[in-house]
Amino acid sequence: MRILAAMSGGVDSAVAAARAVEAGHDVVGVHLALSRAGGTLRTGSRGCCTIEDAMDARRAADRLGIPFYVWDFSERFRDDVIDDFVAEYKAGRTPNPCMRCNERIKFAALLERAVELGFDAVCTGHYASLVETTDGLELHRASDAAKDQSYVLGVLTAEQLAHTYFPLGSTPSKALVRAEAAERGLSVAQKPDSHDICFIPDGDTRGWLAEKVGSETGDIVDASGAVVGVHDGAHAYTVGQRRGLRLGVPASDGKPRFVLEVRPVSNTVVVGPKEALAIAEIAGARFSWAGRAPSALEFSCDVQIRAHADPVPASASLTSGELVVRPETPFEGVAPGQTAVLYDGTRVIGQFTIDRTLSAVPAGV
Predict the structure, then answer these.
(1) Active-site positions, per UniProt (predicted)?
(2) Does the annotation list 6 as a binding residue?
(3) Looking at domain 215-272, which CATH architecture does it have?
């Protein structure tokens, strides 16, 4: 196959490209320039799109003896990921920019261009597995549960899966990937993993959002509407947050309070007891299937609401254009804007963006 290897400059994508070459594929490496600031430098292990990362990717490609290019996707990244991130926070939701990047950049914009140029598939260093069955291609969890990235790939459609290649899915551990990189003479063998939000390299999400959204003081209220504190900007708060509330009025029971809701229109943050974070139902109209769609309008599944959360057994149903999920045990601290990924064992069924939640605690309790 003709393979376009997306090379971030990290060890995973370098080893994935090496395995594609070793498997006999015709491989070309590409690094995506996503930052508008071309001279951006890496800070520790934060970020994945810096000038150093581009150079690391080039060195890996040279070591593998494959052609290498840098493609400027910064404008598309700004429009589809950064602007979306800001808009979601303005609306009081909690977005996942990594999901949007996979959905709209790596497996939409990049894949579209790859197919146009005659490539059969895009290769990445994600830890996930593709399984060919009589019912079609399936996306499954990686063999290394600690590194499994199937959650952030849940946005991929059947058509996109047909043009993807994940060489690391069956690797038992990240340590083995690093050892393999060292054996292959790849300079990124011990490079730290990137983490946090790549376009906020200093990790100060609150400060970054304040510059983009602005900071306007507002009320922090309890469930009855009574004012219990003041905030410096609702965008800085997320559902489930406990720290940094600086409440002026203590709870009557003396227990800590948590953010239950962010209301951007009124610039209000609602707080309450931990018990009120329990969610009995989540739902969303923006859903997709990773391969074949469920054969029934109601089905059982496991649901994961964060990249490293444990899956929760649940029932799901398609009702009036909405995907509704009810967990066997309530979720805790779920916010609109988060992504819920549905599984059948290790297989990814699909995903949806959470538009609304239903509390497990009766109103007034």
Answers:
(1) 101 (nucleophile), 198 (cysteine persulfide intermediate)
(2) yes
(3) Roll (2.30)
